[in-house]
Structures
1.
Amino acid sequence: ASSSQPVSNGSAMSASAPKKTLASKYGDGFVTSASHPELAEQYGNVGTSSAYMGASRPGTAVVNKTSQAPNSGPIDLTQPPELSADQKPIADGLIAFVTYFKSLELGAVEKKQMTEIEHGVGIYIKKLSRGHIDADTSATVGRVLGALQNRDFVAAMKAQTELVNHHWREHKDWLKGLKFLITMSSKKSG
């Protein structure tokens, strides 16, 4: 027959090298290139199995140790902890703002903000009492408080922004509440 396709006979195929087969460990014949790098290479699935090459156990989480225990939450603002003489006026001023705003009629959004403010002030005072806030950060919070007491909301926001830009990683748990305090003060002080 004059066909352009090559014809092979069965004996020529059996004489070639034995075909290597891969089998699933479950015996179901389903094999993926994710678990067999040779298949990934053969089919061009770059990146499917090479991500775990040399790893003793794929998916092992890397945990970074922290230098201090996580914060368990704010303190009760009606019973603040003992603070040094230079720190106490800042804490008392922040608590006075919280007490004042809690006495006002607040809308639903303002109530949520008030919860965040109270939480933030509580965590700030707790960290302050434990020595987790340095003198410069405390002084900047003092500037925020002084600006709020003088109704200089632009200066208060500027000092808060400075804190966020330089200390967000270690103090984000109370900085958000401080921002809401400034926002609410600008709306409700009067």
2.
Amino acid sequence: GRQTAAPPTHQAAPARHGEPAPAASDGSAGMLGFSAASAVEVLTASGSQPTAQWSVRGKVNRSYDAALRSFVLVVDGGPTTRLSLPKDERKSLALPHRVLVLQLQLPRDKPFGFELALADAGGTRRRLAFSTALREVASSPLHTRVPLADVPRGTWLNLCLDLGELVETFFGSWPYQRLDAISLGAVCKVRRIFALRALS
């Protein structure tokens, strides 16, 4: 497919210890009620069953991070390890929020990748795959792979993605409409994932 230099598609800001994510205004952590909230919690490592709504494949464990003073999920194992939402691939999150924030820690010497399924206003479903193993953008009309070469490792960070900008940059047709699915691969630690209507 088409290959171009990687544009500035994300922001990686250090996550301060104990820094809370915005809470969903309707208290919803599931697929229902997503569109009504200004901020939505998609994943949190707290609670008794943090991955109950997620499809878990491979080695995904929960551990306590003393520095953060909170629980985190450790996504480890081989290339087939996957943490995906929604659990049923035939369903959609239908999440219209434009900004997605992942609170992550990436290891210094192991690869990490994740994938988003999005739909534009014309109803076309497209995929964005991000990976630390990539060196350049590889783009086709329905699928784009984006390198994460400049993301800090060995420290907690907030990886902020402007989904509207990503759709416009890589697909350049209809504007962004919704996030349908998210899939995290190894290797990473994740504390929370949340979505915002806009960056304040």
3.
Amino acid sequence: MVKSKALRLWVACCLGLLGTLGDSHFKAFLFARRHIRATRTVRQANRPSVADTTAFQEVAQRRRTVANSRGTIDTQNSRPWRRSLLLSAVALIALRRSDSNAEEVPPARDETVGTIFIGRYTDPNHPGGYREISVTDNWQGDKRFVKIEGGGGRGEPALYNLKGFTQKQPAKDGTLVDTITIDFTPKGGPGNFLGVWDKDGITFVRDNNHWPKSKKK
């Protein structure tokens, strides 16, 4: 709508000029106007663009060079950092695996602990009876659990089972000796009764009672 109004106004102005100046003058006006437009077009066509100038190309090339060098420097600087991060991650994984394996593997144990007590014994406090000691594969720290079966002696049940544990403990001179601790409460005796291997059997520290090992089974 606006363009059509402007076109009508331009036509009216041209007709007015034609009536005022005459046909020859109006043709001269149109020729001058076309000449001005043609001159502007030629100038714009011959004018070098900013992108084609040498200065612009030098600046653009310099910017591209700086950008490429920055990218190369950033990449080169990031490579050692990435390599260090990767090596740290691998070392951490290996450390965790070694820790987990260390937790899974039980500590080395002395399988000879308590084996000296294995066998059958007699008790002078209960003549006619017997005590049979055996070791188990159950451990608690350095303690190895044992089983004691007995009975048939004077003043005691015909059969009973006791629990205890054996371990190595330092003697007065600092040497490690085999000890055994028995819970006699199931047969009416004391608990945690400590004994040590003494020559041919077990000697209990509290009452100095000695169980000699018997060859009879």
4.
Amino acid sequence: IGGMPGMGGFPGGPGGPFGSARRPPEKRFDAIPAGTIVSLKGIMSRPERNGDRGEVIDYDPRSGRYTIVVEDSDEQLKVKPSNLLQHVHVRLHGIESQPEFNGSKGTVIAWNESNGRYAIYVMDKSKTISMKPCNIILENGTVGHIIGLVSKPELNGKSGTIKSFNRTTGRYDVQLSRDQILRLKLENIVV
């Protein structure tokens, strides 16, 4: 059998002539990672599901929808990003009215669209409080949605992965693609 010596008889070496044709899918910076816990919201076709919790299974870029498995069931739903709230961990920051909360860790449990605030469950205080985006620091690796940018309004509505938070500047480094990283204020990223 032909091929290169020591390469198992495959023509052209490891993987044969087709070995390099398969590439792993390109890493997405705009998609919520599999395994993230979410709540469903604003679903018109199945309003009884609003408020239900689930887990992200995958993201289909062709349809722009996530596959979610609903908690305590085997039911899977295909859901738009706007119908999801991620239950991610945060650290509270810059709270002047209740400074005892600064530095505490919490979990996003709800988003109030009308007042632009999160409901955050603060673990070490066993209490839920209402916080503006500028008073929470999202964890690295969280996928957030860009809002309220004045200098580049075309980026509003886009999503990216938080790579880091710079305490000195008070800004996130948010990766939108392999080649594009933005430095954004806390209030310009929401989950």
